[in-house]
Amino acid sequence: MEMTRSVPSGSASSVAVSTVADDNYKRIPIGLERGSGSRKLLARMLRVMFPHPQIGDDPYIRTAEAVLNMACEKPGRQVAFAAAIQDLMNLKFEEMDDAAALDHLRGMQGHDFFTQVQGSALLAFYDDPEVWEALGYEGPSFDKGGYVNRGFNDLDWLPEPRIEEYQGGEA
Amino acid sequence: MTQIAQDEPAVVIIGSGAGGGTLAYELTKQGIPCVVLEAGPYLKNEDYENDEWKAFHQMAWLDPRTTSGSWRIAKDFPALPAWIVKAVGGTTTHWSGATPRFKDHEFKALSTYGKVEGANLLDWPITLAEMEPYYDRAEIAMGSTHRHGRKALPANNNYKVFANGAERVGYKMYATGPYATNAEPYDGRPASIQDGFNFQGDKSGAKWSIMVREIPRALETGLLDLRPDSHAVRITHDAAGKADAVIYADKDGHLQRQAARVVCVAGNSIETARLLLLSDSSRYPKGLANGSDQVGRNYMRHLTGSVYARFDKPVRMYRGETMAGLIADEARHDPSRGFVGGFYMETISLGPAFLAAFAEPGAWGPEFAEIMNAYANTAGMWIVGEDMPQETNRVTLSEKVRDQWDLPVANVHFDDHANDVAMREYGYGRAEAIYGAVGAIGHHRTPPYPSTHNLGTCRMSADPSDGVCDRNGRTHEVENLFISDGSQMTTGAAANPTLTIVALAMRQADHLAGELKRGNL
Ligand SMILES: Cc1cc2nc3c(=O)[nH]c(=O)nc-3n(C[C@H](O)[C@H](O)[C@H](O)COP(=O)(O)OP(=O)(O)OC[C@H]3O[C@@H](n4cnc5c(N)ncnc54)[C@H](O)[C@@H]3O)c2cc1C
Fold it and tell me: What is the ipTM of this complex?
């Protein structure tokens, strides 16, 4: 499982790197291509990483695809991902129950493969409009006239607070 | 648009953000032609995206940078020390709008706080009294609420939680501003539609930015030669040591030269210092205007930290003006709290995409999912306070990484000072008390984001050996070279910096216009 550490990973460093290659992973037969089961395995890994019972499989699958696309941008990363995913398949990761799967992932923390999956999946998953909806976020609003007439101040479980500055001088 | 000949020695301003954009308008308004070189593209409000990552990738400064030091940013976001915009209008496009003034004692940090071990404190060479008329002008220009007759913004949901909590723990000085976004139409701009997109650029124009006021008005004077996609790479000087031109890379990477009579640098602290360091010569071996060796040092980013609290009822913090809520009770100097200087608390909201990336970088698993699951019931606040200037917190040229022009990138080194750590811990505690008082069922302490307030790398000082520029932003060493952005700040104060950057630029414009008219430059 130990993988090359030459790539500076850091979960969120991928923030400054925007490119997501198109779907070349589907075509290259080294174990990540469609039909290899890699997408399904990764989707399971992602559900254990970001467990939201109210969210269906689709966003997890889309995120798995985004992760695989990222992995396929560079041959070294691609082959490392293929090996790591094959390893998880050999260990029958998909058959583990939630607790065992979580335990297993904890053991992988800090490894390049894990860090890269975590970093890129986090960005893709929580950027998915279906996930936004499930979490109660409404997305773009300017085209709908903002929230000025759509509840920007509809919280009713606390009293209306003062909005002006305190008139009693420095407290 | 006006074209100024490249061989005509002009007033050249580098950067079109809060500092550079203000200066350009204030000078052209007084009849002085200016060239503005802006590294980023010319985007308009209608181009902005109501989408966190799209907006970020559209406008943020993503040219490489590197980091070092013990700050957590160096581990979590090693290539992204700061959140700065690279576009016409600079970071005022993504800024939020909080506009408190600095306080009198904050201009006298060394005299007020005394010597603080490890800190490089200094008094400013200007006082609040001198700044007051410019603060008035800046507030009027920016349309700050609660000032000069501008109406307060209404309470949004996030503010209701924040203000009620503040009241219950005994705070008094809370309000929905001052905040530079219109509650009602003002200055040709509409009232806020509370769309919740501030950090992404405001499509409606209700929020003040250099793009809605200073740039269009400066263009109207017919005296502004605005050059987007023009990245300044070196300031050159003549045999007498005076700045005489700015070399810049255009969109296609071709070098251009603009002759200069005066050069004003406003690239936002990191790039301002980098450009001076890149402009070394045998006369200025450590970089232009760097005889004191202070260029790049005393980099400050404000204290910062956020607390996101969960409730058992809906909040929907993302609806409405992001930062229209401020508590000022802790913005005082009271060493009995265990630190010098003070801090503000301000409402903040992130969408799920950014909250996931920034709430606890690197986190995953059930506890992290719980934070995200509570999204609709979450309230958020930001703690922003004075951090200590330290000589070793520093922007230098990277020895390893180069940018698209093959120039060394900026390395940003930062270690928290013990005073910063003590203030942040105290601030987190106060934030939790506020949310606890209105029934929070859980909360999360979020570490500082990539720095949005970048200050101090070319600071003002009375004594040339302590800093880089004088009370007018003129560099001690090069008489026609000015620092025109937040890098001038001698210390950071607790308040968000932009009002002060704009006021300083207005003050500098008056000084420059006078000097130019008197033939001194
Ligand atoms: C999300 C967010 C929220 C914020 N909210 C607030 C707030 O509520 N209140 C507040 O006071 N402040 C806020 N700020 C901070 C505020 O945006 C900055 O303080 C302010 O914009 C800094 O002004 P400046 O002129 O120093 O730099 P900027 O506004 O960043 O402008 C610098 C410009 O210079 C250009 N540039 C840099 N190098 C070169 C070069 N070599 N050649 C040509 N051009 C160059 C850049 O592309 C940029 O356009 C916020 C910032 C962010 C990111």
Answer: 0.95
